[in-house]
Amino acid sequence: MPLNYHDQVNLLTDILTNQQTDCCGSVAECEQLERLVKSLMVNSNLDQNVKPVLQEIYDYSQNGKYTSDLDEHILTNQENLSSWVNNIGSFS
């Protein structure tokens, strides 16, 4: 059963919040973030103001997927993670 828009936003927010809180994550989480962002970007109901935020999250997940030190990547993006969660929350 596919996730609806709100489920996708909630899952995206949960993963980002967990990475921010725990300062660690996995390649699988980065891949999940990519899939969620891609799915949300093609949603015609998406607020256009959130697209730049989703692109930043996509870039973050791409970089995280290929970094040699994912925990350090997450640590250096703490402010971004907080900002993204706040921004997504305001559009969902």
From TrEMBL:
- Which InterPro entries does the UniProt record give? YtzH
Q: Which Pfam families match?
A: YtzH (PF14165)
Q: What is this protein called?
A: YtzH-like protein
Q: What is the protein's species of origin?
A: Mesobacillus persicus
Query: Upper taxonomic classification of the species?
Result: Bacteria, Bacillati, Bacillota, Bacilli, Bacillales
